[in-house]
Each structure stands twice: as C-alpha cells, then as structure tokens.
Design goal:
Layout: H1 15-20, H2 29-65, H3 87-99, H4 111-126, E1 129-132, E2 137-139, H5 142-152, H6 186-198
Antiparallel strand pairs: 1-2
C-alpha cells in the first residue's frame, strides 16, 4: 500500500495542501490502530501462556515431591528479613573452624601456607635434629651434608661381575648437588625482600 501520493510535474499542486504546510496522506490512523491492537493481544496471550506453563511446572514438581511433612515443606524466607551481624556468632564460628579437623578450607590463596611449610623445612635443613633417638640417628644441616658429599662422594653400588661398560660409558659420580630441592615462590621472595629492607643496617 503506497504511503505517499505521487504527482506528475505537470499536475498543479493543491492550494489547500500548500496552505497547511505538510503532507496529509503520510500516516493512516487505521493502520496504527490495527498494529497496536494486535500487539496488545499478543502481549496478553503471551502472559497468559507463561502463567499456565508456570502452574503446570509447579504442579508437576509438587506431585514429584509428595505431600508436605516436617522434612519437606515450603517456607517463606521473606518473613525473616535481613539478619543483623552478630560478633558473638562470628566468634563462635571462628572457634568451631579452628576445632574442625584438617584438611580445612584455605582462608587465603595458599601463599602463607606454602611459606610456613618452607619455614618448617628450613628448620630441618639448617639445624641438627634427631631422626631416630633410639638408634642414635641425627639429621645434619644440608650445608654440612654437601661438604661431606663433596669430600667423600656418594656411595656407588658395585658393578655386576662380567658386565662390561659400553663404548665411552662411565660411571656417573655426583660431586655437588645442583639445588637444595625446591625454589622459592614469588610471595616468599617478596616477604624476604621486605624483611631484608626493614632490617637495621650496621655501620662498618
């Protein structure tokens, strides 16, 4: 349906239209009314359809759950409102959390836990301690162990009789360990740097 009336260049213009100053045939009110009516009907039908589908779903869920009892019943939590913070309750929760057996949920990203583990390992690696007091076994510091290994070498199992080495094959001998077993994390390096910076300087 054309919305504009086209005129040939030879047809004279309507003086009344020129007087109004605008085109009077652009919009048809009947078309707008039909569109708005159809839109309203569509919205109402969609809303009714959603309500019917919701009631059907809720009835199926209620049928699957069975009759209400003390273990299965609906509760309107909106009546409870927002609970006010209770410092006493938080203190009780913290006490229960400390009593809870390990493994516990980490309260941070685990950096402090790794740092504590490495600190415990440093105590064993850098100091003398009993490994088995009954048998007289003692742990020695890792620096002393490295020195002893560098002096004496590691024990080598005797080669099997009759077994010949391949060409250019030698018995491996470890002289000095290349690492102490693990690398520091970035968190520990930052903590060590802060501790070093806060340590008072001694004037020479």
């Amino acid at each position: 349906m054309p919305m504009h009336e086209h005129h040939s260049t030879n047809e004279p213009l309507d003086p009344e239209r020129i007087k109004r100053g605008y085109e009077g045939s652009d919009v048809r009110v009947s078309g707008v009314v039909v569109f708005l009516t159809a839109l309203g009907i569509f919205v109402v039908v969609t809303a009714l359809l959603c309500v019917v589908i919701g009631k059907v779903i809720n009835s199926q869920i209620a049928k699957a759950d069975g009759p209400n009892n003390k273990w299965n019943h609906s509760v309107d939590v909106r009546k409870l409102g927002n609970l006010a913070p209770s410092p006493e309750l938080q203190q009780q929760f913290a006490t229960l959390a400390n009593r809870f057996p390990t493994p516990r949920l980490q309260t941070d990203d685990g950096y402090q836990e790794i740092a504590d583990m490495h600190a415990k390992e440093d105590l064993l690696l850098e100091n003398y301690s009993w490994s088995d007091r009954g048998q007289g076994k003692v742990r020695i510091p890792i620096d002393r162990a490295i020195e002893l290994i560098a002096e004496r070498g590691l024990p080598v199992a005797p080669a099997a009789e009759g077994k010949k080495l391949l060409a250019e094959e030698t018995v491996p001998v470890v002289k000095v360990p290349l690492t102490n077993g693990y690398a520091r994390t970035g968190y520990e390096q930052e903590q060590n740097a802060k501790a070093e910076a806060s340590r008072p300087r001694v004037k020479e």
